[in-house]
Amino acid sequence: MINHISDLYGRQISSAELSAAILELPEVKRRPAIQLKPSLMCSRCGSRLKRSQANLPNGQYYCYVCIQMKRMDTLHDLAFVDEPNQFTKVSDALSWEGQLTPLQAECAEQVVRIFKKRQHHLLWAVTGAGKTEMLFKGIEWAVRYGKRICIASPRVDVCIELFPRIQAAFAKTSIVLLHGKSEQPYKYSQITICTTHQLLRFYHAFDVLIIDEVDVFPFSGNPMLHFGVNNAIKTAGSMLYLTATPDKHLLTQARKGRPSISYLPIRYHGHLLPEPTIIKIKGLSQGIDNNRLDKRVLKMIRQLMSQQQRFLLFVPHIKDLAAVATAIKDAGIIAKYDTVFAADPERLEKVSAMRHHELDFIITTTILERGVTFPGIDVLVLKADNDIFSAAALIQIAGRVGRSSDRPTGRVLFYAEARAANIRSCQRQIRKMNRKAAEI
Amino acid sequence: MTNCLLCQSSLRHTTSFDEMMSLAPAQARQLCEECAADFFRLDSVATCVKCGRRLKAEMSNPCYDCERWQQQISFDFQNRALYEYNSAMKDYMKRYKFLGDYRLRFIFAKEVKKAVTWQKRLLVPIPVNAGTMATRGFNQVTGLLKGCSLVEALKTSQTVKDKRQSEKGRADRLRLIQPFELVEPQIERISGKDVTIIDDVYTTGTTIRHAASLLYQAGATSVIGITLAR
């Protein structure tokens, strides 16, 4: 239940969630939650609804698409309040004292220009380029002028990792972290860090909207979330897309000029991206199905353990997790490890355990392919030739390695039955980026 | 291509040999196999004759709760439940009732209809109060009874509901005073009839027994209950 008007600034909430006193205030505007004409459409998520599915008794309708975020229906209105930008203008908001490399600094200046000119822009930077740090200047500029800022990502892990970094860099600015599982209540703040789903609750709120890892599920190819983004940003707001692997859709748009595009092929420490080594193993898939791992894989795991080298072990399917874990246990390897997948109820705890060096390695699905940094790790990919691993996914996975300047290299091992198209494409793209980086 | 109503995974329709040979139209599935397997049907296990709960080895039949009920009430009442109220059912109720995803009625509507119509009895659904109707927009019980002819002989008498049923403890619920009233013009339709009361969940059995006692007052010959879950 919403009791304070500031909780509605720049937001859109069903009138069912508002107290009667709030609903009577003159600044609270309303529009229908479900549009009946020309066809049935949800005002919050933009989904076209089928009448046969969306009907309630007595000629009422509801949206069954975004229902997880409280129901939109014809029994209630969608209430919203204009964004008042009630922030004190602070000129030295940035408390980060790190150094940018000359290339990063150039990119950071460009980000400021983009925000000033209210552009829509795609920043295509390789994995480990130091994207977050390059945003600081731009955010500082936005804070100085009392703008409202949002950093959104499709992946909750990315948001959780971003939050403390942004908080440390902008210690004096109000920041809120929003995602489906968060216990932190909503509070009107200058900087919002949230999953792209949460954007559905905002309406013309942000002067600056940054979308990190824009090419990834569930955002990519999801019209509902794109609709949400376009509603959350102010009409004259600036949008910045960040990714190391833009998808076709975004590149096609960029070719037409909106968003504009820039490219950063080199990592912040100046070293090249580690190239994957492909190890062909016959019957790898079948072995895993029978809870067995090839001796070459086991040997590598033993070697990594003896060197106290931490790593991530990627598998394509959830059912492979248990099989691989069993195989490792049966081989008599003693180590602290765990398995993790998207719907794992303890996912956040396990990732945090890995981050705090309580685990030697994690066996994971593609959920940890991006947005997470465990300094100095190696990666192993089992069944790299599986369709689940797109070329972009493999590039992201390889990009987990060599991110710290202490250890700018590392092993990227793809175990596969064949050098399939996705692996070849991944290798080609990494080599291409490395060639471009070498030119600089 | 349709999707599972609970987990949204796409449903590939595999036609069995029997279906191929049959002239009856193919049944559209609402759930994927994984989600469907999470619900526990009570028709193939031992259940309490009075309330329909699944009986564990050490339990008597009728169960302990029902023996207590028999000392407290003067009329005969039996309930049958289609499913156990397990975590899948709890989650379903949360989404169907409290989130208000009215589409989810399709999952059980056919089964409920079959269960309530195989005997020729008068069907009386448990009503929801006006406040719930205004915000939720539907009665979760009648939602499950599509295509059945219903006699809506009951209405809620408390105009303001202080707490949701599901937010009360057992003691609170048992203390509950009669929450229903008879709807005047329907009373004569009850008299001399065999009546089935339908509810979504049987928890303590208080609600449905209150309803039963009113229907006996209105002259029903026999009253039984059918609930989706127990």
Description of the molecule:
The complex is a heterodimer of chains A (440) and B (230). With 440 residues, chain A is of the alpha/beta class. Chain A folds into 3 domains: 5-80, no CATH class; 102-264, Rossmann fold (3-Layer(aba) Sandwich); 277-439, P-loop containing nucleotide triphosphate hydrolases (Rossmann fold), CATH 3.40.50.300. Helix content of chain A is 31%, strand content 20%. Chain A contains 13 helices and 20 strands. Chain A has helices at 20-23, 51-54, 102-116, 131-144, 156-169, 223-232, 248-255, 284-289, 295-306, 318-330, 347-355, 391-398, 421-439, and strands at 12-14, 29-32, 34-35, 41-42, 55-56, 60-61, 77-80, 120-125, 149-153, 175-178, 191-195, 206-212, 233-243, 260-264, 277-280, 311-314, 337-340, 361-364, 378-382, 412-416. In chain A, the strands form 5 sheets. Chain A has a 7-stranded parallel beta sheet, with helices on both faces. In chain A, strands 15-20-19-16-18-17 form a 6-stranded parallel beta sheet, sandwiched between helices. A 3-stranded antiparallel beta sheet of chain A has the order 1-7-2, with no helix packed on it. In chain A, helix 12 links the parallel strand 19 (378-382) and strand 20 (412-416). Chain A is globular. Chain A starts with 11 loop residues before the first strand and ends with a helix. The relative contact order of chain A is 0.11. The mean pLDDT of chain A is 91. Chain B is α/β, with parallel strands linked by helices and 230 residues long. Chain B has one domain (39-160, 176-229): Rossmann fold (3-Layer(aba) Sandwich). Chain B has 10 helices and 8 strands. Chain B has helices at 17-21, 33-37, 64-72, 87-98, 105-117, 130-136, 140-143, 170-175, 187-190, 206-217, and strands spanning 2-3, 10-11, 78-83, 122-125, 154-156, 180-182, 194-201, 222-229. The longest helix of chain B has 13 residues, at 105-117. Chain B is globular, with a radius of gyration of 19 Å. The A-B interface holds A 16, 53-58, 60, 62, 64, 67-68, 70-71, 73, 75-76 and B 95, 99-103, 134-135, 137-139, 142-143.
